[in-house]
């Protein structure tokens, strides 16, 4: 059920290798013990944005991780660190030559108040979790 969502600014699109980053994100989450079954990775490109003082040569990449509730704090923290290290490595070359804001956050999809989430898939016979 984990989601790996990449938001990024249009001014880095040609060199960001977003499809590669999405695959790396899925691999990282699976490596941290999250189930492949129901995994979702996607990206959102922003054409309109203001970063810092508005300079046009500044880019941004933000990763949101959405996970089911119930994971231990230590696991969630470790997952954020693993994904942030992946993000830094993926963008290291770009980071060395231009202004770039990188960030990662992890949120639980359903809160402790019992708010529901509804989902369904038919991948059970084709993937192992």
CATH topology (level 3) name: Macrophage Migration Inhibitory Factor
Largest sheet: 4 strands, mixed
- Derived from helix and strand composition plus strand pairing, the structural class reads alpha/beta
Rg calculated over all Cα atoms: 16 Å
Portion of residues in helices? Answer: 25-40%
Determine the N-to-C terminus distance.
Answer: 10 Å
Q: What spatial form do the alpha-carbon principal axes imply?
A: elongated
Give the name of the CATH superfamily. Macrophage Migration Inhibitory Factor
Query: Major sheet: order of its strands?
Result: 2-1-3-4
Number of strands: 4
- Count of alpha/pi helices: 3
Top-tier CATH class: Alpha Beta
Q: How many domains is the backbone divided into?
A: 1
Give the low-confidence spans.
none
Compressed to H and E, one letter per element, the order equals EHEEHHE
The average pLDDT is: 91
Strand content: 25-35%
Corresponding CATH architecture: 2-Layer Sandwich
Structural account:
Strands 2-1-3-4 form a four-stranded mixed β-sheet. Helix 1 (18-31) packs antiparallel against helix 2 (73-90). It has one domain (3-108): 2-Layer Sandwich (Macrophage Migration Inhibitory Factor). With 129 residues, the chain is α/β, with parallel strands linked by helices. The longest helix is centred in the middle third of the chain and has 18 residues, at 73-90. Helices cover 29% and strands 26% of the residues.
Characteristics:
4 strands, elongated, Macrophage Migration Inhibitory Factor, alpha/beta, 129 residues, single chain, 4-stranded mixed beta sheet, 26% strand
């Amino acid at each position: 059920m984990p989601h790996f969502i990449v938001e990024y600014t249009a001014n880095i699109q040609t060199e960001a290798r977003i499809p590669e980053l999405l695959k790396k994100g899925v691999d990282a989450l699976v490596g941290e013990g999250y189930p492949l079954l129901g995994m979702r990775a996607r990206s959102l490109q922003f054409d309109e944005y203001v970063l810092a003082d508005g300079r046009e040569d500044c880019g941004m990449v933000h990763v949101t991780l959405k996970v089911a509730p119930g994971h231990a704090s230590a696991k969630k923290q470790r997952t954020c660190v693993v994904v942030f290290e992946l993000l830094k490595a993926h963008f290291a070359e770009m980071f060395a030559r231009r202004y770039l804001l990188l960030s990662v956050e992890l949120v639980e999809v359903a809160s402790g108040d019992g708010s529901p989430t509804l989902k369904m898939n038919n991948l059970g016979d084709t993937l192992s979790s």
